[in-house]
Design a protein that fits this description.
three-stranded antiparallel β-sheet, 14% strand, 3 helices, 93 residues, alpha+beta, globular
């Protein structure tokens, strides 16, 4: 299995139970570390929060909605039968 795909799955599996502040920190750190993109509304060109992370794109009217939407899309995008080792030991962000 591709190492980046496994990292994405570990990130996704490590998100449940995080507070809004922890989610904010985790997503921004992961975007920076992996070359993803995240845009906040400026109301001139961008009207929604947008994220592209590990090839999965999502948007939302708030950060909370953005993070929920990305997780839903990523669960679908990352659903492969091949196992990644240590998914249960998802890293804390």
């Amino acid at each position: 299995m591709d190492a980046l795909h496994c990292r994405a799955r570990r990130f996704l599996h490590g998100l449940p139970g995080k507070s809004p502040t922890e989610l904010h920190d985790a997503f921004y750190a992961e975007v920076i570390e992996t070359g993803g993109t995240m845009l906040a509304p400026d109301f001139d060109e961008v009207m929604f929060f947008e994220i592209t992370l590990y090839g999965s794109f999502a948007f939302g009217e708030s950060e909370a909605e953005l993070f929920r939407n990305w997780q839903r899309v990523a669960r679908h995008d990352l659903d492969r039968p091949e196992p990644c080792s240590n998914l249960a030991g998802a890293r804390a962000s």
